From TrEMBL:
Prephenate dehydratase domain sequence ranges: 91-266
Chain's role: Catalyzes the Claisen rearrangement of chorismate to prephenate and the decarboxylation/dehydration of prephenate to phenylpyruvate.
Keyword Cytoplasm applies: yes
Enzyme Commission numbers on file: 4.2.1.51, 5.4.99.5
Catalytic activity: prephenate + H(+) = 3-phenylpyruvate + CO2 + H2O; chorismate = prephenate
Pathway membership, UniProt: Metabolic intermediate biosynthesis; prephenate biosynthesis; prephenate from chorismate: step 1/1; Amino-acid biosynthesis; L-phenylalanine biosynthesis; phenylpyruvate from prephenate: step 1/1
Compartment(s): Cytoplasm
Protein name (database record): Bifunctional chorismate mutase/prephenate dehydratase
UniProt cross-references to InterPro entries, sorted A to Z: ACT-like_dom_sf, ACT_dom, Chor_mutase/pphenate_deHydtase, Chorismate_II_sf, CM_dom_sf, CM_II_prokaryot, G/b/e-P-prot_chorismate_mutase, Preph_deHydtase
Gene Ontology biological-process entries: chorismate metabolic process; L-phenylalanine biosynthetic process
Domain annotation Chorismate mutase: ranges: 1-91
Amino acid sequence: MPGDLSGYRKEIDRIDDEILRLLNERSKSVIEIGHIKKAQDAAANLHTPAREAAIIERLVGQNPGPFPSEAIRPVYREIMSASLSLEGPQKVAYLGPRATFTHMACMQKFGSSAQYIPVHSIKEVFNEVERGRANFGVVPIENTTEGVVNHTLDMFIDSNLLIYGEVLQEVSHHLMSKSGVMEEVKKICSHPQAIAQCRNWIETHMPHVLVSEVASTARAAEICQEDVTIAAIASELAAQLYGLKVMKARIEDNLNNFTRFLVLSQKPPQRTGKDKTSLMLSIKDKVGALYDLLRPFASNGISMTKIESRPSRRKAWEYIFFVDVEGHMEEERVNRAIEEIKGRCLFMKILGSYPAHN
């Protein structure tokens, strides 16, 4: 009969059963691949971003619809995350606690089936990966509003870890509390960067409320559980995990607010064809030194996407530059530019070539 849903629902049930059967068939192949990888190299990373990118690009390219192409990526992110967990545990260290934006970036990259290890500092993230207690680490590197995270840059000076990938995470700040009643709020807590990113909104809408800095946005949400007069600026995920009510969504001053995160590993990823290379170098103190440093990139047709300077901490007025360029160090033009620059540097370190965020 017209309007009868039962027939369509039965068809959906049949299709869902078939999807489940095929997922299990896919999983059997994944397990065999895991056995082969371990036989070839017991210490190899099971996560292969080049293969994952190829799968998603192929599926998006041949999608006839009506299933939206933009939904294919998150769906297959979870399928591949679950598949990797069958091959072996994927341990990911990150700047915790749960429900921080770093945690959200981890889930965007590795899905919900990875084993996440929250730690208390960026230094601890590096340490967990260096000691082999985690396969990967995820740390913030820069924000579109507040700029670079200097502590992360400093850690690369002495670390032997490589950059394995990057994640761009949209940062949307929400005001939340236990009761959800704005009139009850006497204090707002959050991480210093989150407060800075919402300063105009706070001064306009809650100018007389005390603002207090805490270790993380997630810690702020946790505090709200104990006192109805305290509000937190945190993520939507934090509201869900800590049972809070959102009083006002998206209070960040800049709606185009993103944080870039780096994925750390002891091993390099495979080349994908859409890669980025990061370098750390120190130049001789002379007139035109920075120009001479950048010229080989331009002459070899390489686009530079970032340059940041930091004091070297080893000699007064000596600076180390962190540079991101498009391309992989195995590409002839990139390798040629790096070789040209080496002779002009006091110090150079290649932090890795890795897939650019898609």
